Amino acid sequence: MRLLIATDAWHPQVNGVVTTLARMHDELPQLGVEVAYLTPENFKTLPMPGYSTIRLALATASRIASHVEAFRPDWIHIATEGPIGWSARRFCLRTLRPFTTSYHTKFPEYANRIAALPSSWVYALERLFHKNSSGVMVATASLEDDLRTRGFHRLMRWSRGVDLSIFHPRPVRHFGDGPVFLYVGRVSREKNIEAFLDADIRGRKVVVGDGPHLQSLRRRYRDVWFTGAKCGVDLAEQYASADVFVFPSRTDTFGLVMLEAMASGLPVAAYPVTGPIDVVENGASGILSEDLGKAAQAALLLDRAAARSRAAKFAWSQSARQFLENIQTAKSQAENAHGRGADSSAARAAPHSQYASITQGHIT
């Protein structure tokens, strides 16, 4: 199978969506899939206002069409609701090509928190985006239930994974010996980091990550250790140097960082909301409570081995198989309903000489 994934979230962004899609590039070829990505790298871009590390693609219909015709995919998966996602969706509808989508981010809640937009307005826009999808992939059971009550259809489960070879307990203490409470992730308003920084927690607080809210938080919280962004082994050592991972977000749909933390031996303290309630075993691998400070202090008493054991149940290889099975199911249903839509499209009929060259999974 030749699979094209259209996404507005891509390197150099650092977030769960990028991590997940990049891992699919590593895992899917082992399942017989040739995968390419349609990303902001394929277009002219402009910096997102207030968040210059995110580039917004000028994704015109003609450019989308030329990339699809060049790669000739058997299936298109649209991962995000940005300019590339909307343009790819329009192309698929215009050419009668079925496609799948995924719901990675609670944009309605973000928009309400950041811009005071009514979440009902944004949910209406989200329903429109996913309305014609042959399958809407979601990471957790609680998110699936929530979206179903909001009028979303054809929901499919697609879980996540963690690399246990990188994230594991290590004999390092970069932040000293006292109780260390850690946050890792994007430093932006929607992550609700102040809930962690304001919580009554006895110990050192550490924030690992970058984002538009970083300098403001540094000025306000002089006693907090801000490390900036970390990756690879450096990031793994930050996790291993802490005692409890604090996840203050109320709007994430999964929270890959919780898996990385637990794989490193850190119990999690979080609110009992979508993401934590699906990932964390309350009372074993973490503590879920509306009082984040009490949850963090209680998590100190948990068995670190239990956190590691919980993370080990999430594998990227299984995530890739689940993703592919969803696509195969959606493709089969679309073909049964409408004939072999993708195989009969004009893009599929393009001569082999027009194939794009593929470099590291990207269309060039």
Task: Show the helix and strand layout.
Blueprint: E1 2-6, H1 16-27, E2 34-38, E3 45-48, E4 51-57, H2 61-71, E5 75-78, H3 83-94, E6 99-102, H4 107-115, H5 119-130, E7 136-138, H6 141-149, E8 155-157, E9 180-184, H7 193-197, E10 204-208, H8 214-220, E11 225-228, H9 232-240, E12 244-247, H10 256-263, E13 268-270, H11 276-279, E14 286-288, H12 292-299, H13 304-311, H14 316-338, E15 358-359, E16 362-363
Parallel strand pairs: 1-2, 1-5, 5-6, 6-7, 7-8, 9-10, 9-12, 10-11, 12-13, 13-14
Antiparallel strand pairs: 3-4, 15-16
Helix pairs in contact: 4-5, 10-13
Largest sheet data: 6 strands, parallel
DSSP E strands, number: 16
- How many helical elements? 14
* Level-2 CATH architecture of the largest domain: 3-Layer(aba) Sandwich
Assembly annotation = single chain
Q: Could you estimate the helical fraction of the residues in percent? A: 25-40%
Average pLDDT number: 91
Across the major sheet, the strand order is: 2-1-5-6-7-8
Q: Order of SSEs, N→C?
A: EHEEEHEHEHHEHEEHEHEHEHEHEHHHEE
Could you give me the name of the CATH homologous superfamily of the largest domain? Glycogen Phosphorylase B
Radius of gyration: 21 Å
How many domains, in number, for the residues? Answer: 2
